[in-house]
Design goal:
Its EC number is 2.1.1.-. By secondary structure, this protein is of the alpha/beta class. It is built from 6 helices and 13 strands.
């Protein structure tokens, strides 16, 4: 499963199990994730989300540096964000002011912002930053809490690549390139994976090592979380372009609806 690979471990908040992004991590995030900010990636994402938001407002959980939220706001969708890391939010604030895109500092499972939304969304595997099933359930409940009748909750999430694990193997590579080596190791009992990253740091041949923990979840498990929160599955596709979701899909974009 492809992961955001810039988090640093061993820094925690008492209100959530999520690892906290550091100042150094936030400052280099946009540069190291430039591919995810390309038009090829963002255009279908923004079109998908804007159509669901319609004439209403959108709330992004874990908005980060605003990779999606800022250009969605530029398309005319009023956006509000929730972000755990003050450092990530500070990078976003360099791009757009508070009046145009308000951001609340807090965790996405419990933080409440004023108003009602037609769309709540979570992109790029970020729900896995919540390391317990209970917290992921609360994330769904928090989404439902913010949605008006008929509103949608959208999650983009990779499918756990456990088919690539032969007996006795616990690691799966997801990126092997000149500038980055990434692989995931799995705890199959706790549904925890650790993403390990070796990233080239400058031109002197040195590599920076980092890792982050995530709780992976299957589509069917998310559907049950949605039902607990009073949401109904509306559709599931293999990506922002709307391709059909199949047993061979590496990820899914799922849409749950709050009954009218």
């Amino acid at each position: 499963m492809r992961r955001q690979h810039l988090q640093h471990p061993a820094q925690w908040l008492p209100v959530t199990s999520s690892e906290l992004w550091t100042h150094a991590t936030a400052d280099r995030y946009d540069a190291e994730e430039s591919e995810m900010s390309s038009a090829a990636v963002l255009d279908p994402t923004l079109t998908f989300l804007a159509e669901l938001a319609g004439e209403g407002r959108a709330l992004e959980f874990a908005i980060g540096t605003g990779r999606v939220g800022v250009p969605l706001r530029e398309r005319g969708v009023p956006v509000v964000g929730i972000e755990l890391s003050e450092h990530m939010a500070a990078v976003l604030r360099r791009k757009i002011d508070e009046d145009a895109l308000p951001v609340a500092i807090g965790d996405m499972a419990t933080t409440v912002v004023p108003g009602e939304f037609t769309l709540v969304y979570l992109v790029y595997n970020t729900i896995t930053n919540l390391l317990t099933q209970d917290e992921q359930v609360e994330c769904f409940r928090n989404a439902a809490r913010h949605l008006g009748p008929g509103g949608r909750f959208v999650i983009e999430l990779g499918v756990p690549p456990l088919r690539f694990l032969p007996p006795g193997q616990v690691a799966v590579p997801f990126d092997v390139s000149e500038h980055h080596l990434g692989f995931d190791t799995f705890d199959l009992v706790e549904q925890i994976l650790v993403s390990h990253h070796f990233t080239r740091d400058g031109d002197d041949g040195r590599y920076r090592r980092g890792n982050s923990r995530h709780r992976y979840a299957w589509p069917s498990e998310l559907d049950l979380m949605a039902r607990i929160a009073g949401l109904e599955l509306e559709r599931r596709v293999a990506g922002w372009d709307g391709a059909p979701f199949t047993q061979d899909s590496a990820k899914h974009v799922s849409v749950w609806r709050k009954p009218a």
